[in-house]
């Protein structure tokens, strides 16, 4: 599959040189520039390479571990499906968690419930530490 990395590079350069800082909290759903990535890594979509993500862990106001989300219903140990508002059902792609800078954040979309977030934390722990 051909990917046009040149377009993403232009946007990535603007993001890096910008001063956009959106401070997020764990459990928040944020729309962000996830980008165009290599191989099977989760990409953003559209001209701005956007994707909603779950804030999984906050290290500072600038550095976070996120989990990309999709609207496609998926099952299995690599996925967790939840609703964060009455209209939107999302699936967290647990196998795609990654560290990103807050300069990628665009806007806040909502929160995942504490109960679902605790289940996601347990699922990530099992995924990373199971034999």
Labels describing this entry:
alpha+beta; globular; 7-stranded antiparallel β-sheet; single chain
Describe the fold and architecture:
With 131 residues, the chain is an alpha+beta fold. Helix content is 22%, strand content 34%. The protein has 2 helices and 7 strands, in the order H-E-E-E-E-E-E-E-H. Strands 1, 2, 3, 4, 5, 6 and 7 form a 7-stranded antiparallel beta sheet that branches. The protein is globular.
Listing every helix as H and every strand as E from the N terminus to the C terminus, the arrangement reads HEEEEEEEH
Q: What is the radius of gyration computed over CA atoms, rounded to a whole number of angstroms?
A: 15 Å
Number of strands: 7
Number of helices: 2
Q: How many angstroms does the end-to-end distance come to? A: 33 Å
Strand content: 25-35%
Principal-axis shape: globular
> What does the largest sheet look like?
7 strands, antiparallel
Q: Give the averaged pLDDT, no decimals.
A: 90
Helical content (DSSP H or I, runs of 4+): 10-25%
SSE class: alpha+beta
Q: Describe the oligomeric state of these chains in a short phrase.
A: single chain
